[in-house]
């Protein structure tokens, strides 16, 4: 019993805080609509009590033969105002919710944009971000529901005060009729707090699988393979899991609501019995019955509103914790003049593994040089790159930028030194201008965008588009873009960024041989402007490198120029590239 009581108090406390936070957000985002909604709900709250007063006076006046035009007019206004006030109040709270939804979704997007690569690499951050996105779908209605609960409270108190004048016991019983509903939805909310995370987890997996079916690129691949049905089966499994949990929750909620309804009926019945046995007049009893019936609906809706607040509270808590945990973004300044970079005896071991991914790796490059990292899959190339950029912190050794320990820099300062083209580059289906302009943190000119397209050998196919405003991606009714063209646009972003260190991970893997040669020719021509680090599995792209580092099982086993390494037999480089060199 104490544990249950504690849980109930805790649920109430969290719900009250959630409602208060939402009302504060409303006051900041839409004070006008908050005021209108509150006023309309307050007017609705006093109507049942007004109905009791005017109906009693009307019946008493008719019984006594007095003129009853005043009470009749008042009763007409009260009864006539109930429906329109309810509709207008609903519309006002909906408009308030729209503004809150805009606030929360914009706020979440801004928080996500401030996340650093190192935080994005943390699985719990991604989970919280997805949960926060789900929370925005329910948080926008909390303020309106809070007003509805407050309105129902006012209804109960005012109605209690009016009925109290007829019979004090009846007044107290009318007020007590609110309690079963509140208790019922508190119990429901506790149950839902356990069930909704399970539903959300299944829904996220189902949504991801569904996205693979409806997005053009993965959907086309699945259609060609004829295996879309398998993904649809995965969707069905996850949706079934969520549905089963929801079904159990709804069944239990039905029992709670039925119990609350019976308890409320008993309390209202007791109120009526007290009126009759307390000697209330026929007019008073009739008026109290009519008023309490009207008030009953408001009190019942209060239970649903309170239940929604309690249900939304855990999700709102996740959202606010996530948004508040992301610090203000530090402006990223692109550093264009970098003299040298170095991995100095760097080692790294991934959490949960015993075998190091890197062991005593030392790599150096100076301005004007093009170096390459090569090795088979799993050799440590990506780990070395991520350690250099700062996505991973070395377990041993140091990363030096112009002789300074990179650990002394903030993450934004460190990232400003690099332009990174990863193998899984982004295919952002925005306008052509926006796709390229994403390469720089600041606003850029159209001329800068066009120059980047020329340097990335992307001018030829983009010239056929309808200018820089052209929409990319067929799913938005835009221009279809091939894999190689997407890669050139990704390279254009690196040209536009023009950082002091370029890291190009398989920068031409999706590009035809002729365009590949043109791109590498341009990279070599402008090599003096930067430090270039290339990760490649293609032998001919390595011929112009000033130095090649061969990684094997996390260790640099060879270094030198292309011809030197190929001639060094036996040697790991020759083993990897001998076949390509002959062809």
Which descriptors would you attach to this protein?
single chain; 583 residues; alpha/beta; ABC transporter transmembrane region fold; Rossmann fold; 3 domains; six-stranded mixed sheet; four-stranded antiparallel sheet; elongated; disordered N terminus
Radius of gyration: 34 Å
H/E topology pattern: HHHHHHHHHHHEEEHEEHEHHHHEHEEEHH
The averaged pLDDT comes out at 85
Main β-sheet: number of strands, strand sense, barrel status?
6 strands, mixed
Record field, number of beta strands: 10
Number of spatially distinct domains: 3
Q: How much of the residues is beta strand, in percent?
A: 5-15%
Helix run count: 20
Distance between the termini: 80 Å
Q: Which runs of at least 5 residues are low in confidence (pLDDT < 50)?
A: 1-6
What is the gist of this entry?
Helix content is 66%, strand content 10%. It has a six-stranded mixed sheet with strand order 6-7-8-3-9-10, sandwiched between helices. A four-stranded antiparallel sheet has the order 2-1-4-5, with helices on one face.
């Amino acid at each position: 019993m104490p544990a249950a009581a504690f849980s109930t108090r805790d649920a109430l406390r969290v719900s009250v805080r959630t409602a208060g936070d939402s009302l504060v957000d409303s006051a900041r985002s839409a004070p006008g609509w908050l005021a209108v909604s509150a006023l309309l709900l307050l007017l609705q709250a006093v109507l049942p009590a007004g109905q009791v007063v005017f109906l009693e006076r009307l019946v008493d006046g008719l019984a006594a033969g007095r003129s009853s035009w005043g009470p009749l007019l008042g009763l007409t206004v009260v009864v006539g105002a109930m429906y329109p006030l309810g509709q207008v109040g609903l519309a006002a709270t909906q408009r308030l919710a729209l503004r809150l939804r805009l606030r929360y979704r914009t706020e979440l997007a801004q928080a996500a944009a401030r996340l650093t690569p190192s935080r994005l690499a943390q699985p719990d951050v991604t989970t919280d971000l997805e949960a926060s996105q789900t929370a925005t779908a329910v948080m926008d209605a909390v303020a309106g529901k809070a007003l509805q609960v407050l309105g129902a409270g006012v209804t109960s108190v005012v109605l209690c005060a009016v009925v109290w004048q007829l019979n004090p016991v009846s007044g107290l019983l009318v007020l007590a009729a609110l309690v079963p509903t509140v208790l019922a939805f508190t119990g429901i909310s506790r149950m839902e707090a356990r069930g909704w995370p399970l539903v959300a987890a299944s829904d996220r997996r189902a949504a991801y699988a569904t996205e693979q079916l409806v997005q053009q690129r993965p959907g086309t691949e699945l259609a060609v393979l004829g295996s879309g049905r398998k993904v649809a089966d995965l969707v069905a499994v996850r949706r079934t899991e969520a549905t089963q949990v929801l079904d159990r929750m709804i069944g239990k909620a039905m029992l709670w609501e039925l119990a609350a309804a019976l308890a409320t009926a008993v309390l209202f019945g007791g109120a009526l019995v007290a009126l009759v046995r307390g000697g209330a007049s026929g007019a008073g009893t009739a008026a109290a019955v009519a008023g309490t019936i009207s008030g009953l609906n408001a009190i019942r809706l209060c239970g649903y509103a309170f239940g929604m607040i309690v249900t939304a509270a855990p999700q709102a808590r996740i959202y606010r914790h996530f948004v508040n945990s992301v610090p203000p973004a530090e402006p990223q300044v692109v550093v264009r003049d970098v003299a040298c970079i170095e991995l100095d005896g760097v080692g790294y071991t991934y959490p949960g593994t015993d075998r190091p991914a890197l062991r005593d790796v030392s790599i150096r490059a100076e301005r004007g040089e093009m170096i390459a990292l090569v090795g088979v899959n799993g050799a440590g190339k990506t780990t070395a790159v991520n350690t250099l950029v700062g996505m991973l912190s070395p377990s041993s050794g140091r990363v030096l930028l112009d002789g300074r320990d990179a650990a002394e820099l903030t993450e934004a300062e460190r990232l400003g030194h690099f332009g990174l083209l990863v193998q899984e580059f982004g295919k952002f289906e925005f306008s052509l201008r926006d796709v390229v302009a994403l390469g720089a943190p600041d606003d850029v000119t159209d001329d800068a965008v066009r120059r980047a397209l020329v340097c990335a050998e992307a001018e030829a196919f983009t010239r056929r588009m309808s200018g820089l405003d052209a929409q990319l991606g067929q799913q938005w009714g835009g221009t279809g873009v091939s894999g190689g063209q997407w890669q050139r646009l990704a390279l254009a972003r690196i040209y536009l960024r023009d950082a002091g260190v370029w890291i190009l991970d398989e920068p031409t893997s999706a590009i035809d041989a002729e365009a590949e040669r043109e791109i590498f020719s341009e990279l070599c021509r402008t090599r003096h402007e930067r430090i270039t680090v290339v990760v490649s599995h293609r032998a001919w792209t390595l011929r112009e490198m000033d130095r090649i580092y061969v990684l094997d099982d996390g260790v640099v086993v060879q270094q030198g120029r292309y011809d030197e390494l190929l001639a060094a037999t036996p040697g790991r480089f020759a083993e990897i590239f001998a076949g390509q060199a002959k062809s």
